[in-house]
């Protein structure tokens, strides 16, 4: 009975006591976040650049014929507008660059902070697992004493409740850790699905896939 209890507990706590957690390395998470923002930044830049194509046609001089000769008409205000619009477009691209850089660095800082918090909690959980191994051995002794009728039933129930409460609390902490790891991956856009949209993906199809 004693050996069965210790074996069962060891299987439950193996992933933390052996140091094999599911937390990706920080540089891996940072690379994932950087990839996401690089793609989003490039897409927004491309969208703006494409939207501005053809604008130069508004500033082409007018051509005509006067007295049998070809003429070219220049409007100084259009020349000024073209120079101004060009400057505005350049400034818009700089603005897009700056906004993405600020957002990226802000989330990168948040990611690093959350990572350190998760690692600290993982260290605490590992220490509890090591303590739990001692508790498992301790309870096995109580179990053996009870089986030999060397321990009063009421005392055994108290020890059983204490041990089960410890296991339940440990399991709760493990589940909370798993959730925090998922949130950390979400923050880093870790293994984010790279799906594409085309004319086959109608709004109804997207709704049905939820």
Protein model, in words:
It is a single chain. The protein has 210 residues and is mainly α. 74% of the residues lie in helices and 5% in strands. It contains five helices and two strands. The protein has helices at residues 2-17, 26-51, 76-147, 153-187, 203-208; strands at 62-66, 69-73. Strands 1-2 form a two-stranded antiparallel ribbon. Helix 1 (2-17) packs antiparallel against helix 3. It starts with a helix and ends with a helix. Mean pLDDT is 77; it is low at 1-15 and 199-210.
The strands making up the biggest β-sheet line up spatially as 1-2
Quick one: how many beta strands? 2
- Low-confidence parts: 1-15, 199-210
Query: How many alpha or pi helices?
Result: 5
Measured by DSSP, the beta-strand proportion falls in: under 5%
Envelope shape = rod-shaped
Order of helices and strands: HHEEHHH
Structural class, from secondary structure content?
A: mainly alpha
Mean pLDDT: 77
The helix fraction, in percent, is over 70%
Q: How many separate domains make up the residues?
A: 1
Radius of gyration: 33 Å
Distance between the termini: 48 Å
**Largest sheet descriptor:** 2 strands, antiparallel
Structure keywords:
210 residues, mainly alpha, two-stranded antiparallel ribbon, 5 helices, 2 strands, disordered C terminus
Quick structural overview:
The chain is mostly helical and 210 residues long. Helices cover 74% and strands 5% of the residues.
Which helices and strands occur, and which strands form pairs?
Layout: H1 2-17, H2 26-51, E1 62-66, E2 69-73, H3 76-147, H4 153-187, H5 203-208
Antiparallel strand pairs: 1-2
Helix pairs in contact: 1-3, 2-3, 3-4
